[in-house]
Amino acid sequence: MDTTSRLIMLLEVVEQGSFSKAAELRNIDRSVISKQIGKLEEELGVRLLNRTTRSFSLTAAGAEMVKKAADLRLLLQDTVQLAENYHQEPRGLLRITASSYIGQHYLMPVINDFQKRFPQVSVEIRMDDRVVDMISEGYDLAFRVGEPRDSSLVARKIARNKMLILATQRFIDTYGEPKTMADLADLPAASYSSSHLRFESISYIDENGKPQEQPITPVFRSNDAEALMSKVLSHTAFFTAPAFFFADGVDTDQLVPMLTHVNLPDYSAVYAVYPHRDLPVRTRLFLDAARHYIGEHKPRWELNIPGIDQLYQAINK
């Protein structure tokens, strides 16, 4: 391993906050990381880290080296990207991260078609709800619901994402159809919940044009769209769901939109997120394919939702 590689390894240790996490990221033993950082200190002739059995801190020299390592990694990435852009045929590894639902229902068809067109591109996709650090973990492209908070990333809106309030007819017959948003507080709800997001209320715009929040009473929580749908189809809960949850459309024989006169703002749009504006050929072509498949003007998930343009007087963002 050369000095450049060891500097980037030092950067990863600092970004991950521990030797163990940096080793896990590279799928190597922790002792390898420790040994290579030791060799880096020998090469440079300065101490970079103050270590204890449980933690470490950067020395003044270490802090400067980490800054240089970040610049070096960016330069290397740009160099590789420049070379790739000269290939007539896209090739290499494309690393994607997305939620499980978006990955399974909207990206897998794109990936399958893309690799038929460009067989020299290999694809790795991570599907879960964790928001990864794209730069330190080496991802080329992310598909996320909501604009990222990290201002260093580039975010491109892919499609809008309306909200729906749905239940089965049997549920409505059992519990009564709500006439106002306040009525929802008395009804059992199925609610999306993950490690970083919990739905405990519904946003809406009242008659005076002012934003309001209506609390709901979740009796079932899950981070899985199919599990939430299963609960609703058991006739024991209603749910408020973003339209992208309905990859196969809404079967109005099974699910009934409620309170359709209420003005519901759109849920956070779906974004493509990437580290740099100058994308490698394979990333740019895949992004174009995903945008085409999902549909920017009329999202794919709206095509089979009857009358969605008239529901909830949604405010487009």
From TrEMBL:
The record, for InterPro entries, names: LysR-type_TF_proteobact-type (IPR058163), LysR_HTH_N (IPR000847), LysR_subst-bd (IPR005119), WH-like_DNA-bd_sf (IPR036388), WH_DNA-bd_sf (IPR036390)
Record protein name field: LysR family transcriptional regulator
Keywords from the named record: DNA-binding, Transcription, Transcription regulation
Carries keyword DNA-binding? yes
PANTHER family to which the protein is assigned, alphabetical: HTH-TYPE TRANSCRIPTIONAL ACTIVATOR TTDR-RELATED, HTH-TYPE TRANSCRIPTIONAL REGULATOR
One GO molecular function term of this record is: DNA-binding transcription factor activity
**Protein family:** Belongs to the LysR transcriptional regulatory family.
